[in-house]
C-alpha cells in the first residue's frame, strides 16, 4: 500500500503505524455532565464500515506526522490523506465560527 | 546410448555437456536444457508418483504449470523439495531425487493405494477419519501425515542468502513472449522506464517453442533481436528468471528473481534469490496461455503430455518425448505438434481429432471424429486405443501422446485484486474481466488473442494505451508480419466412454468420477467442489485442471460453465521458498540489535547480557569464583546498599518536551500534576491510557520554564513517544509544544548507594554544588563534568538509596563509565546489571512493567490519589469508573516467604483458609531473593491487600505443583520513610 503523505508525497505503508478510527480525534469534554458515557463511547465504540473509512496512521519511520487517511475498506483505495493536526484545527475553527454565528 | 531422444536443432549448446544424476543414475544434457528436457532426451519418462494413489507419473508440461514432475533438487543443506523439473535449469553436477515413493520410483509400496482407489474417492478423509474421536490424534493423524506430503526437508539450516529489493518503473511488462516483447519495445523506444520480467531463463515465450516466421525470420530469431535491442537501452531493465508473483494494492507487484538457482551453489557475492517489490505506474500482463487436458481413461500414464509441450520439447530443446508419437486434439493447434514432429523426422502414428472434420497440416494419419478411449502401459505409455468415427476401435502403438483440449488464457494476476474473469465462447475459456488491478492492461494470449499477429498488435496497443494514461506518448511499433491463423475448437472436456478413471487434477489425483460424486453428494458450489475433492488445491493451483472440473460440474448441474462459476487465483503465482520471504531477516538479523555506548566496556568485564526489547543490557557481572548467578546478583545488590554501584540506564526512553505550553502538555499526558513543578526539580509521573488503565511511568525533569525531559520505561519508549505525539498533534494542536526523542542522544548511568555523592563529586566540575542542601532529593540540573563536558544530573532513585542518574552525550558514555570505575575504586564501586536493579526496586517496592501490565489501574498500584481531580488528563474520567475502584479491588502489596522457599512470580494467591483452587485473589507480579533481608520477597496484587497486612496467604504455582505460604507486608521492604534517598 502507498500512502500519499501531504508533506512527503507517496510513501510505502510499511513506514507507518496504524492506530484506527479517526473518531479518536473527537475527545469528549471531560467536564460535561455526560462525560462518563461520552468517554465510554470514545474509548470503546467504533463503526466498522464497508466503504469509506477515516483512520489514523503515524509516520513512525518518517516525519512523525499523524495523518487522517480516508480509505475504502472494500478496495483499499486511498482517497485522501491529511495532517491530523490540520484536520483538528479546521474543525475547531469551524465550530468556533458556528458558535459565533 | 545417451540422449537417445535428442533431435537436431533447438536452443541448446551442444558444445558443452553437463553431467547430472536422477535417483543416483548418471545422465548427460546440455546448457539450455531443463531437468525435464534432459531427462526426456535420455528417454526417462517416469519422474514421480502421484500424491494420493502413488500412480507412476511423468512430465506433462514444459513450464511452471507442471503438476507431476516434482523432484527434490540438490543434496545436504541445499536440498529443496517439490521443485518442478520443467523449470529447473540444468547445471553441471545437478542431483535430483524422485519423491513420494518407497522404496523406489519403479516399485512403490504405497502404490497399493491405487488398488483401493474405490474407497479413496472424494471426501474420503472427511468420511473415514471422523470417529472414534479419540483415534484422531493417536492413530489417524500420524498415518495421514506419514502418507501425505511430497518432498522432504533436509532439516539443516539454509546456507544461502536471500535478498529483497525495490524497483520503480513507468511500465512493467509481465511475460516476454510476442505480446510482451512488442509492448516492451514500443514503450522502451518512447523513453519510458520499462521493466520486462519473465520466469524463463530464455526470453521469447512461445516464440522459442513454435515454428513460425515474424518479418521473414524465425520467431526465435526475431525474439532474440528484440531482446538485444531492449538490453542495449538504459531505460529498460530485463529480468530473466523472474516470476511476477502477485499484483497487490496500489500498483505494487511482487516478483521473485532466481539469481543463482541455475548454479550448484551461489557465488559468494550472489544471493540465491531476490524478492522484488515493483512499483509500476502501469503494467501490461502478457502471461500467455496454458494448454488444458482432455480427460479419458488412464490419461495419466508417463508419456501422455500436453501437445504444446511435446512441440516445445522438440522445437526448443531438440527432444522427442517418444520415438512414436500420437496426438489427441479438439482444435487446430494440436495439429502443429504433428506437423513439427514430422518435420523433425519423428514417427507420428496418428492425430486423433474429436471434430468431425479437420484439415491436416502435414503427412500423418488423421482420425477425425475420433476419441482416445484408453491407454496401455504400466510405468510408461505403450499405446492408445481410439474409437473411430465409424464406431470401430483401433490401437496405436506409441510412447508419447500429445493432448490438446484448447488453451486457457493465464488470468491469474488479473484476479489478485478481486477481478473476476469472464467467459469467452469463441475460445471456450475465461478471459480477464473488468476490475483489473489498478493500472493493469492485458495483451496477447492472456487476453484471449491467440494468433501471433494479434498478440504482437495487442502488445503494441496496450503499451501505447498504458503510457497515454501517464501522459507519455509512444509511437506504436510497426506491427511485424506474423501468423494470423484462426483458432478453431469444439470443446471436449472428457471422453464419456469407459468406467475407468479419467484424470482431471494430476497433482491432487482428482478424477471425473470424483467431481460427479461430489455433485451427487450435494456439493454444487465451485468453492465447495474444490474443497471436497481438493481439485485445484495443489501447489499448481489447478492451472491445467480447474476448467475441466468446472465443465464436468456444469454438465451435472445442467448449467453453462460461466453459470456454474469460476475459480479465481491468489498470489503467489508459483510457490515461493520461505527463505525468499524472510530475506535477510533471519537468525540474529531477524531484528536490529541495539547496544549502549558502554557495551564494549561491559563485555570487557565479562558481563552476561539480556535482551530488553531490541536492546542488549548487562544482566550481571560475574567475578572469578562466583559459580551461580545469584551469588553475583547478591554481591551487586549489597554493594549498592553498602557503598556505591553504577548501572547503565541508557535504554530508558527519553523525550525532550519544549515550548511555552510544555507544563500544560505534561498535565494532560500524566495523571498527576506538573504545572507547579519548579525549575530544577524532577517528579514521578504516572501515565494512564484513555480507558483508565496504567500505561507507563517515568520521571519528568524541569530544566527550564519551557523545557522538560521526560523518561519512559525501556520497553515502552516507542509506544509512549507515539502516544505523546498523538496527544500533541491530534488532541491539543493549539498548544505551543514540541517533542523529540533523545533516547539515542544521551548515555545515562545510575550511580546509587551511600557513597554516590562522594563519587560524583570527584567528577563534577567544582563550580556545580551537588551537596545535599544545594542539590536535594528530586533535584535536577545541567552541569559540567571532567573539566567542561556538558552533562545532566538527576537526583532520582529507583533503588531507594542515595542515588543520581547522570547523562552525557552518547559519544562520551564509554569514557564516563570508565571514569566512574576509576574514580570509584576507593569506594570499591560495583557495576550492577538489570538483575540487581530488579532486586533493588522490588526491595523498595517500585512498580515496573510487571506491575504496569495493562491490567492494573492507579488504584491497584496504590497510586489512586495521584490521579488529579483538579485537572483533565488522559484516562482521568474513565479511571473513576466504579469497576476500577471497587472496595474489594486489587492492591499492590509486598510478600515475604515463610517457609524458606523462593516465591515464583506469576503464582496465584489464595486465603490461607480456602483451598487453592478456582478463582484466585490475586497474583505475584515480581519476586526476588533479597540478600539485604535474607529471604525471598515479592510484589503482587491482592484483593483488599491494603487491609490484609500481616495475613498469611497461600502462594500456588500449580504449573509446577508448588504451594507455599507467605506473609502480606508493605511493598516497601527497605527504608519506608525514605531517609536513605534523602541522605
Automatic annotation (TrEMBL), chain A:
The highest taxon in the source lineage is Bacteria
Q: Which InterPro entries match?
A: SoxD (IPR006279), SoxD_sf (IPR038561)
What are its GO biological-process terms?
tetrahydrofolate metabolic process
The entry lists its GO molecular-function terms as: sarcosine oxidase activity
Q: Name the Pfam families for this protein.
A: SoxD
What is the name listed in the Swiss-Prot or TrEMBL entry for this protein? Sarcosine oxidase subunit delta
Instruction: Supply the source organism for this entry.
Output: Tritonibacter scottomollicae (Epibacterium scottomollicae)
Automatic annotation (TrEMBL), chain B:
Ranges where the Aminomethyltransferase C-terminal domain occurs = 891-975
GO MF annotations in UniProt: sarcosine oxidase activity
Q: Which GO terms describe its biological process?
A: tetrahydrofolate metabolic process
Where's the GCVT N-terminal domain? Answer: 599-871
Domain SoxA A3 per the UniProt entry, residue ranges? 499-584
Q: Does the keyword Oxidoreductase apply?
A: yes
Family per similarity comment: Belongs to the GcvT family.
| Protein name, UniProt field | Sarcosine oxidase subunit alpha
Can you name the source organism?
A: Tritonibacter scottomollicae (Epibacterium scottomollicae)
Amino acid at each position: 500500500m502507498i500512502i500519499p503523505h501531504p508533506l512527503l508525497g507517496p510513501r510505502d505503508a510499511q513506514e507507518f503505524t496504524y492506530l484506527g478510527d479517526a473518531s479518536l480525534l473527537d475527545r469528549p469534554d471531560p467536564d460535561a455532565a455526560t462525560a462518563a458515557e461520552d468517554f465510554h463511547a470514545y474509548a470503546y465504540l467504533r463503526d466498522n464500515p464497508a466503504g469509506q473509512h477515516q483512520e489514523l496512521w503515524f509516520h513512525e519511520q518518517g516525519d512523525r506526522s499523524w495523518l487522517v487517511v480516508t480509505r475504502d475498506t472494500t478496495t483499499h483505495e486511498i482517497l485522501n490523506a491529511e495532517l491530523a493536526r490540520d484536520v483538528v484545527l479546521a474543525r475547531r475553527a469551524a465550530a468556533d465560527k458556528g458558535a459565533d454565528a | 546410448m545417451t540422449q537417445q531422444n535428442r533431435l537436431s536443432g533447438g536452443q541448446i549448446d551442444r558444445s558443452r555437456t553437463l553431467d547430472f544424476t536422477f535417483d543416483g543414475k548418471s545422465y548427460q544434457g546440455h546448457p539450455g536444457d531443463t531437468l525435464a528436457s534432459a531427462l526426456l532426451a535420455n528417454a526417462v519418462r517416469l519422474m514421480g508418483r502421484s500424491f494420493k494413489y502413488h500412480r507412476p507419473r511423468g512430465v506433462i508440461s514444459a513450464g511452471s504449470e507442471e503438476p507431476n514432475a516434482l523432484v527434490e533438487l540438490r543434496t545436504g543443506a541445499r536440498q529443496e523439495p517439490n521443485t518442478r523439473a520443467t523449470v529447473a535449469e540444468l547445471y553441471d553436477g545437478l542431483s535430483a531425487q524422485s519423491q513420494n515413493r518407497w522404496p523406489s520410483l519403479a516399485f512403490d509400496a504405497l502404490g497399493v493405494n491405487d488398488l483401493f482407489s474405490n474407497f479413496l474417492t472424494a471426501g474420503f478423509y472427511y468420511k473415514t477419519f471422523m470417529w472414534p474421536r479419540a483415534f484422531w490424534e493417536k492413530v489417524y493423524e500420524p498415518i495421514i501425515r506419514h502418507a501425505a506430503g511430497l518432498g522432504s526437508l533436509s532439516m539443516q539450516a539454509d546456507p544461502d542468502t536471500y535478498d529483497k529489493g525495490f524497483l520503480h518503473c513507468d511500465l512493467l511488462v509481465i511475460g516476454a513472449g510476442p505480446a510482451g516483447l512488442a509492448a516492451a519495445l514500443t514503450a522502451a523506444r518512447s523513453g519510458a522506464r520499462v521493466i520486462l520480467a519473465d520466469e524463463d531463463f530464455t526470453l521469447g515465450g512461445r516464440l522459442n517453442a513454435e515454428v513460425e516466421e515474424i518479418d521473414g525470420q524465425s520467431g526465435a530469431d526475431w525474439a532474440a533481436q528484440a531482446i538485444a535491442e531492449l538490453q542495449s537501452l538504459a531505460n529498460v531493465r530485463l529480468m530473466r528468471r523472474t516470476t511476477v508473483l502477485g499484483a497487490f494494492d496500489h500498483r505494487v507487484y511482487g516478483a521473485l528473481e532466481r539469481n543463482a538457482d541455475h548454479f550448484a551453489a551461489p557465488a559468494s557475492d550472489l544471493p540465491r534469490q531476490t524478492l522484488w517489490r515493483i512499483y509500476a505506474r502501469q503494467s501490461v500482463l502478457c502471461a500467455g496461455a496454458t494448454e488444458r487436458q482432455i480427460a479419458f481413461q488412464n490419461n495419466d500414464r508417463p508419456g501422455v503430455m500436453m501437445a504444446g509441450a511435446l512441440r516445445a520439447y522438440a522445437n526448443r530443446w531438440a527432444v522427442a518425448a517418444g520415438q512414436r508419437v500420437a496426438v489427441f486434439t479438439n482444435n487446430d493447434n494440436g495439429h502443429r505438434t504433428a506437423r513439427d514432429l514430422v518435420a523433425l523426422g519423428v514417427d507420428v502414428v496418428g492425430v486423433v481429432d474429436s471434430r468431425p472434420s479437420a484439415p491436416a497440416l502435414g503427412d500423418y494419419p488423421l482420425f477425425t471424429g475420433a476419441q482416445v478411449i484408453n491407454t496401455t502401459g504400466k510405468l510408461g505409455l505403450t499405446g492408445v486405443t481410439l474409437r473411430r468415427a465409424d464406431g470401430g476401435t483401433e490401437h496405436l502403438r506409441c510412447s508419447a501422446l500429445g493432448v490438446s483440449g484448447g488453451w486457457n488464457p493465464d488470468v491469474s494476476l488479473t484476479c489478485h485484486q478481486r477481478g473476476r474473469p469472464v467467459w469467452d465462447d469463441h475460445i471456450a475459456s475465461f478471459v480477464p474481466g473488468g476490475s483489473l488491478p489498478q493500472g493493469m492492461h492485458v495483451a496477447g494470449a492472456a487476453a484471449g488473442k491467440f494468433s501471433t499477429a494479434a498478440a504482437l498488435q495487442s502488445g503494441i496497443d496496450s503499451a501505447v494505451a498504458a503510457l497515454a494514461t501517464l501522459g507519455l506518448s509512444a509511437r506504436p511499433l510497426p506491427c511485424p508480419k506474423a501468423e494470423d491463423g484462426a483458432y478453431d475448437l469444439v470443446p471436449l472436456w472428457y471422453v464419456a466412454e469407459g468406467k475407468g478413471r479419467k484424470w482431471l487434477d494430476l497433482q491432487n489425483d482428482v478424477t471425473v468420477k470424483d467431481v460427479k460424486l461430489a455433485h451427487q453428494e450435494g456439493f454444487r458450489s465451485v468453492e465447495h467442489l474444490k474443497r471436497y475433492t481438493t481439485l485445484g488445491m495443489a501447489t499448481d493451483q489447478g492451472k491445467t485442471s480447474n476448467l475441466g472440473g468446472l465443465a464436468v460440474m456444469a454438465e451435472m448441474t445442467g448449467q453453462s460453465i460461466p453459470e456454474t462459476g469460476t475459480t479465481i487465483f491468489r498470489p503467489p503465482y508459483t510457490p515461493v521458498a520461505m527463505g525468499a520471504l524472510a530475506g535477510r531477516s533471519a537468525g540474529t538479523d531477524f531484528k536490529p540489535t541495539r547496544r549502549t555506548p558502554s557495551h564494549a566496556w561491559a563485555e570487557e568485564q565479562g558481563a552476561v547480557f539480556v535482551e530488553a526489547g531490541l536492546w542488549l543490557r548487562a544482566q550481571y557481572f560475574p567475578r572469578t569464583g562466583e559459580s551461580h548467578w545469584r551469588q553475583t546478583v547478591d554481591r551487586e545488590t549489597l554493594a549498592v546498599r553498602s557503598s556505591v554501584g553504577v548501572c547503565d540506564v541508557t535504554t530508558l526512553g527519553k523525550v525532550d518536551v519544549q515550548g511555552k505550553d510544555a507544563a500544560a502538555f505534561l498535565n494532560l499526558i500524566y495523571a498527576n500534576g506538573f504545572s507547579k513543578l519548579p525549575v530544577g526539580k524532577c517528579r514521578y509521573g504516572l501515565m494512564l491510557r484513555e480507558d483508565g488503565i496504567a500505561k507507563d511511568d517515568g520521571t519528568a525533569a524541569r530544566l527550564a520554564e519551557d523545557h522538560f525531559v521526560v523518561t519512559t520505561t525501556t520497553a515502552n519508549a516507542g509506544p509512549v513517544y507515539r502516544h505523546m505525539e498523538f496527544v500533541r498533534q491530534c488532541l491539543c494542536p493549539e498548544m505551543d509544544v514540541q517533542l523529540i526523542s533523545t533516547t539515542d542522544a544521551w548515555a545515562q548511568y545510575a550511580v546509587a548507594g551511600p557513597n554516590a555523592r562522594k563519587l560524583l563529586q570527584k567528577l563534577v566540575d567544582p563550580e556545580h554544588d551537588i551537596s545535599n542542601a544545594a542539590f536535594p532529593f528530586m533535584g535536577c540540573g545541567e552541569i559540567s563534568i571532567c573539566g567542561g563536558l556538558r552533562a545532566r544530573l538527576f537526583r532520582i532513585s529507583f533503588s531507594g538509596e542515595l542515588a543520581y542518574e547522570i547523562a552525557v552525550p552518547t559519544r562520551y558514555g564509554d569514557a564516563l563509565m570508565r571514569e566512574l570505575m576509576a574514580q570509584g575504586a576507593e569506594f570499591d564501586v560495583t557495576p550492577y546489571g538489570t538483575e540487581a536493579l530488579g532486586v533493588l526496586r522490588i526491595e523498595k517496592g517500585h512498580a515496573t512493567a510487571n506491575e504496569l501490565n495493562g491490567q492494573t489501574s492507579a488504584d491497584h498500584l496504590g497510586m489512586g490519589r495521584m490521579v488529579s481531580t483538579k485537572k483533565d488528563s488522559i484516562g482521568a474520567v474513565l479511571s473513576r469508573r466504579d469497576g476500577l475502584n471497587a472496595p474489594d479491588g486489587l492492591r499492590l502489596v509486598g510478600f515475604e516467604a515463610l517457609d524458606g522457599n523462593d516465591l515464583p512470580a506469576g503464582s496465584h494467591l489464595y486465603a490461607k483458609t480456602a483451598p487453592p483452587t478456582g478463582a484466585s485473589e490475586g497474583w505475584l507480579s515480581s519476586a526476588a531473593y533479597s540478600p539485604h533481608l535474607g529471604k525471598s520477597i515479592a510484589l503482587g496484587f491482592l484483593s483488599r491487600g491494603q487491609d490484609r497486612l500481616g495475613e498469611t496467604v497461600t502462594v500456588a504455582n500449580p504449573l509446577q505443583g508448588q504451594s507455599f505460604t507467605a506473609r502480606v507486608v508493605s511493598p516497601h521492604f527497605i527504608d519506608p520513610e525514605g531517609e536513605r534517598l534523602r541522605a
